[in-house]
Sequence to fold (297 residues):
Amino acid sequence: MKNKVRLAIAGAIILAFFAFVGCERIDAGHVGIKVKMAGNEQGVQGVTAVTGWCFYSRLTESIYEFPTFVQHKEYNVEKDEDGKVILDESFIVNSKDGSEFHVSPILNYSVRPEKVPYVFAKYRKPLKDIENGFIKTAVYDAFRMATNKYTADSLISNRELFESKVRQILEKQLNSEGFMVNQFTSNLVYPKTFKQAIDAKNAAVQKAFQIENEVKQTEAQAKISIVKVEAAAKIRVINAEAYANATLKEAEADAKAGKLRLSYISPTYINYIIASTWDGKLPQYGTVPSMFKDIGR
Fold:
């Protein structure tokens, strides 16, 4: 009988213990937060181990789990199968000259384990609510402050520097609140009018290059033609000079030959030629040359 009573008392004590004392296991990748719900010490009581079991008073305390593993968030436009916008979490920011840029940033972040009590005490919201509240505002402010320092032209020309500046501002805001930026992508989209202007500018530059190349090609062809004409003229001059020299030399040779032939002609030679060609008949009329008269004697 006594044993039964003892067992009953022990059972009652155990039931009472578990009725007032809770026990939860903190999963890996989370930090457990023990919160005082009553008394002078209401608020964050402490942080349990990252993993393990945690005992707490069901009457005066509560346990919350806060994830510390990397979270992925896309602030973009969600559409249904018909293309109708369901949710639009993207941003529109303005550059220094008033141009609008559309951004759909992608953010991988995590909560620093040692900062979980501070984050929970300050926001008292689940991480997803903080993600769509404070973190979203911090992302927008980072884009707004960075974009406002650039004109549209300079932003596009310095895209990498711009995105680095956005991340720098965002990290400064989030780190001070216990968050860590693991990866960040801006997904910046240029305005349609600006894209058209860029396309037109690129087309104009390409056209200018084409015209410049055509001008250079025409100039090169003209220079080639001039060189050809000058070469042909030089060739004609050379040919003319060669022909003139040849003609002069030929005339000089003829003159020398004529003089040489004349030097061999004498009266005796002339008479010899006449005699060698005479047919033996004297002229019937006129005066008979003296040489023939002499022969007749």
Q: What stands out?
A: The longest strand covers residues 30-36.
